[in-house]
Design a protein that fits this description.
Layout (H helix, E strand, L loop, with lengths): L1 E5 L5 E6 L2 H32 L7 H23 L1 E7 L4 E8 L2 E8 L3 E16 L6 E15 L5 E6 L2 H15 L3 E3 H19 L1
Parallel strand pairs: 6-9
Antiparallel strand pairs: 1-2, 2-3, 3-4, 4-5, 6-7, 7-8
Length: 205
């Protein structure tokens, strides 16, 4: 979920992190990694107490399970601590995107003049889940709303993502006021097509 604010000199800033579901998933992965590491240490200590083996004998086990534990821990930490900020800079008239991963930051800049329109759209996340009988899998789609800056050519830059339409629409209006770009409202066009389809069905009946 993204939230927006005005920064220094009235820059428009949008900050986002992971949604609650992904944060929980990240926390579970980190917990699994920590549990593997703890059990590994306990097993080695218990085995060494009875066999008095040299620590070098446990290197293959440490490499295998230690790598597995570290993979879970890093992936979970990345999911929990991920941060993203998009700033529309009034002084340089640029879009500055900054992503943070475990303290490591990656920054990209785009000139605002390269963008031609603001896109307000509805997207779908499709997830697979086990059927109620346990024998098969069903697919569940969850809608979410995005606001993107679309260039004349190339990939659009996503500014806002959220489960509700109203905050996304409000963000699109703020960006339009800041950039003087037109809003391409795909959500309303989709509704118009759905309404037209229903009207045609009613006429046939």
């Amino acid at each position: 979920m993204s939230r927006d604010s005005f920064g220094a000199d009235r820059d428009l800033v949008f900050r986002a992190g992971l949604d609650l579901g992904r944060r929980i998933a990240g926390a579970v992965l980190a917990f699994v990694g920590a549990a593997i590491a703890l059990q590994l240490v306990r097993a080695i200590v218990a085995n060494r107490a009875s066999t008095h083996a040299d620590w070098a004998a446990y290197v293959p086990v440490l490499l295998m399970f230690g790598t597995l534990s570290l993979a879970f821990l890093l992936l979970g930490a990345l999911m929990v601590l991920y941060r993203r900020e998009v700033r529309l800079d009034v002084e340089t008239y640029q879009v500055i995107e900054r992503q943070m991963y475990l303290g490591y930051g990656r920054t990209r800049s785009y000139p605002l003049a390269s963008f031609k329109r603001i896109v307000l759209a509805r997207r779908q996340i499709t997830r697979s889940r086990r059927g109620s009988s346990g024998s098969g899998r069903s697919r569940r789609s969850s809608p979410f709303f995005v606001v993107e800056l679309a260039p004349g050519r190339g990939k659009p830059v996503r500014i806002v993502t959220g489960p509700k339409e109203e905050p996304a629409r409000a963000a699109a209006a703020r960006i339009a006021a800041f950039t003087r770009l037109a809003v391409d409202d795909e959500v309303e066009r989709e509704r118009a097509r759905e309404a037209a389809g229903l009207d045609e069905e009613d006429d046939k009946d």
